[in-house]
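step 4 of 6: structure.
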Amino acid sequence: MSRTDIKTEVEAFLTTHWDSEARRPREGTSRDFAQKVFEAGWAVASWPREWFGRGLDKDDSKIVAAAFRKARAPGAGQDRTNIAAASLMNFASDESFKREILPQLLTGRLAICLLYSEPGAGSDLASIRTRAERNGDVYVINGQKVWTSGARTADYGLLLARTDWDVPKHQGISFFVLPMRQPGIDIRPINQITGDSHFNEVFLDNATVPAKNRIGAEGEGWKVLQTALAVERLVMGEGAGERRQGSSKNNVVSLIDIAREAGQLQDPLIRQKIAQATAYRQLNALNIARAKEELAQGSSSPIMSLGKLAMSRILHTDAAVMTQILGAASMLDGPEHERAADINYRTANAYMTSIGGGTDQIQRNIISERVLGLPREVELDRDVPFRTSRAVTG
Amino acid sequence: MTMIGMEERAAIREGFARLLSDKADDAALRRIMATESGHDAELWKAIGDMGLTGLLIDPAYGGVGGSIVDVEAIMEEAGAALLAGPLLSSAVMAAALISDSTDAAAKARLLPGIASGETIATVAVTGDKGLWTRDDIGVSADRNGVLQGAANYVLAANVADVLLVIAKTGDELAVYEVDPKANGISLQALKSWDSTIRLSRVVFDAAPATRIAGLDGAAVERMLDLARVALAGEQAGASRRIFDITVEYVRTRVQFGRPIGGFQAMKHMAADLLIEVESATSAARAAAQALAAGSTEAPVLVSLAAFACADAFHQVAATSIQMHGGIAFTWEHSAHLYLRRARVDAQLFGASDYHRERYVSALEKAA
């Protein structure tokens, strides 16, 4: 099938089933549409036909994703963006489990949460201590996870747990798809510095997971995770790109508007600060646009890995400039002082980006090691049996 | 728009990079720095032979009909090598100004020479305050085209055959052509902190001049915006080069039994600088594309590039010295040459605060 044929076919599919003006299916619910996308093989076009795809090469499957993007239709390109599905496809060994769960994942009928971080394993994720012990056809799980969003609504959790304590920390981890609706799982919301509760702690007390839900071999969990994280970074990078396209202008307007509203827009010092804050955002947007162009031309670009670090500077700077514009009023809070409340919220929420998903400091390590080729960090417990490391012995 | 395709642009850039690494390496640069003129005539001829002095000039006048996108690309290479000489002042500023005029005679008289490189031209834009603004023009022309006053910080005037002077005529600005060696004109060479850049103050005392028709204050602003984008390209290219030199150094310099690039104090500085380097490149190129396309975003993007690239280059060059440590405190090491260029570039055509103000004003207008 030629490239033109693919394009024709996918466009015909979209014309028939999707109203791109109204951004909704021509008939039925969005769930019905997701099912049609899945059945047509567009959800994961690069996967083999016997595995819900079309067996297309990378360039052809990009054509599919591009056509969906153009029509603003959901559901395509999940071979690149659906973290859980991609991990399952690549690493799960139990065929019946894959056949059961992948269709549900690819049609959005399953909600997934991430059970990675622990109180003792933040930046150093490989020192997790949640334990998975084999007992017949199941593993019994005990431990505690943190920073899990969507835990209450999730059907499954992607779980990282230790199956071997006598090998170095990266080698004793296994990866599971844990059913979330069972006794032995206790979910408690975390109260954040913003006043929100987006995240939860998840306590695992003799929870069980069927052995067939293990993704990859025992001890290969770290490798599976790296693949999942690579997908996540890609999705986040592109998402950041698209989000900022939309929000760049809003932000420009808002800093200028906030200054005008506060009677500070003619202050030359404030204008300098607005320029700098806006510049950080616009420069990041230009970087992402250029990276995409370079990627499209086939050359690799280090820029995508800079996005998160750049974004945390943008958000902290925005909040600081807004605070400066508002002056003494920024001491106030609550519904009576909407502007101050918003700025104070932004100030606190900026840490979500500069800490969450790897702190700025970890990001700088990663950039300098992976992009610039500087030496890796010294890791004292990298090669010792996990049982003897300070993560365990204290 | 440019008559040069993307592949051709890449080839031109590559050829120029090769020329610079052959003929304008650190040793060559230091030789030129020590000369009185600060100009390498042989290298200049080679640059002219490649067509780079005629990038912005119409083929009808012996140029190659390129655009600011092409100029920005080669300026990245020029910046990387800290190229000395009149490329910016002659091939960008003077070429752009005359090309923008309605003066067929001036074009026929001046452009072919500038395009080939045989004529070196420069533009006197600012007065003694060095603001590069309309209010800071120190030369006036009377109705007979006789110039009086002074222009300052004129680039490469010491090697120029032709001097274009922005002068006040009543409320408007006009552009005059003079021979810098003519009567009534005196050139005072200024010692620059970056001796790869030669600056002069030029005094006009009843100096007769030829007016170039069809150029006003708006034309001067258009020329300055092109110059700012070219300079932004230079800054982006220069910051990338000194950054690469620095990363290579910390990767190989060993202290405490390991490469110093393994210390987080170094790694974090390097990661932060990489954002600056990439941002400068993106900003310079986006501004060039917007200008070339005549996009409504051009005023915002040109101002952004002007301060973002100046600040990035300065931060990268300054931090590079710190990251190198003692070796970069020596005259022989090239790091200080990048800092010198960064500090001089940061003043040319308006400093960052000025461009930040223009940027906010442009954003207000765009909103």
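step 5 of 6: annotate
 - DSSP finds twelve helices and ten strands in chain A.
 - Confidence is low (pLDDT under 50) at residues 241-253 of chain A.
step 6 of 6: archive
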